[in-house]
Specification:
Shape: globular
CATH topology of the largest domain: Rossmann fold
CATH class of the largest domain: Alpha Beta
Structural class: alpha/beta
Radius of gyration: 19 Å
Number of strands: 13
Strand content: 15-25%
Mean pLDDT: 94
Strand order of the largest sheet: 3-2-1-4-5-6-11
Number of helices: 11
Number of domains: 2
Largest sheet: 7 strands, parallel
Distance between the termini: 34 Å
CATH architecture of the largest domain: 3-Layer(aba) Sandwich
Helix content: 40-55%
Oligomer: single chain
Length: 314
């Protein structure tokens, strides 16, 4: 391989998570020398077909010496930092631990990256903007995210900005609602709806499903992260943020209907509880202009691939 990533030494934290495993697959296919920092073993590398092609280091994000060990093992030119308590439920389960992982863990990764002269791509979330927009969330918008999960990501982004002041090249990726195959978290609406559709069971929809969100297919996200990573290696990004979303917003109810239509099975909705008013939509013009990135998969195409993978693996 002779592409940009061929032979590049890369460390991915949270490597065997949902998004991390897809990113590792993309890096391996580009010829990168990938080391994955993981907390525990699972089957995602095997399911992705990259088992044995990613070196792994077991490390706790809460321990500086173990992060040091991972960097010493990988000697990376760049670190993609994905490891985190990645859902509101995980954060609420143990608030102190979540802040320690998401904020203090990020600070330590950045500090160690500085020592190893490694660029960093930090994976943040659209949740940092808040829950409602009449237009679309722009990278220059004030961060008004509510709740502990959003707060932890905002604070982690602040740590990125502090590291950038010290000279570290850091790129920030603010992701929309990422979906795709091999997502083991069935509390998320796409894997939950796909699983229920395949089982011919009703889909659970909170409230009336009127909340609208920006859904982005995971392979598009992986390519977006690679684009940010390339820019972070080519120049000092100074903690610059890029939205990675579809640039479209769809209600949860409509999404569930699309899952059924794509899978050629009608899904009966099961409404429960109340929903908090939300309209999420990411502006993605900056990523297209400065990174040359835009989504390749329509929602329908992404759902089709997702359903096929779950049908094969559930």
């Amino acid at each position: 391989m002779t592409g940009f990533w061929s032979g590049k030494k890369v460390l991915v934290t949270g490597a065997n998570g949902f998004i991390g495993s897809w990113l590792c697959k993309a890096l391996v296919e580009e010829g990168a020398d990938v080391c994955g920092m993981i907390y525990s073993e699972n089957n995602l590398f095997k399911e992705q077909g990259i088992q044995g092609r990613v070196k792994t280091v077991r490390a706790d994000l809460g321990l500086m010496e173990e992060i040091e060990m991972a960097f010493s093992e990988a000697t990376p030119e760049i670190c993609f930092h994905l490891a985190a308590k990645s859902t509101a439920a995980q954060v609420e389960e143990d608030e102190e631990e979540a802040l320690n992982v998401n904020v203090e863990g990020t600070r330590m990764v950045l500090e160690v990256a500085e020592k190893h002269r490694s660029a960093v791509v930090f994976v943040s979330s659209a949740k940092v903007y808040g829950s409602f927009t009449k237009k679309c969330f722009d990278e220059e918008d004030e961060l008004k995210g509510e709740g502990l999960y959003a707060e932890s990501k905002i604070k982690a982004e602040f740590e990125c900005a502090r590291a950038a002041v010290r000279g570290l090249s850091v790129g920030i990726a603010r992701l929309g609602n990422v979906y795709g195959g091999f997502d083991p978290n069935y509390s998320r609406i796409v894997p939950s709806s796909v699983r229920r559709m395949l089982a011919r069971a009703p889909a659970s929809i909170k409230g009336k499903g009127k909340n609208s969100q920006d859904f982005i297919y995971v392979e598009d996200v992986a390519q977006g992260l690679l684009a940010i990573g390339k820019k972070a290696l080519d120049e000092n990004l100074g903690a610059e943020a890029f939205n990675l979303g579809s640039g479209k917003s769809i209600s949860v109810r409509e999404l569930v209907e699309k899952v059924g239509k794509t899978g050629k099975r009608k899904i009966r909705p099961n409404f429960f509880g109340k929903e908090k008013a939300c309209r999420e939509l990411l502006c993605i013009e900056k990523a297209e202009k400065e990174l040359g990135w835009k989504p390749s998969f329509s929602l329908e195409d992404g759902l089709k691939k997702t359903i096929e993978l779950y049908r094969d693996h559930i």
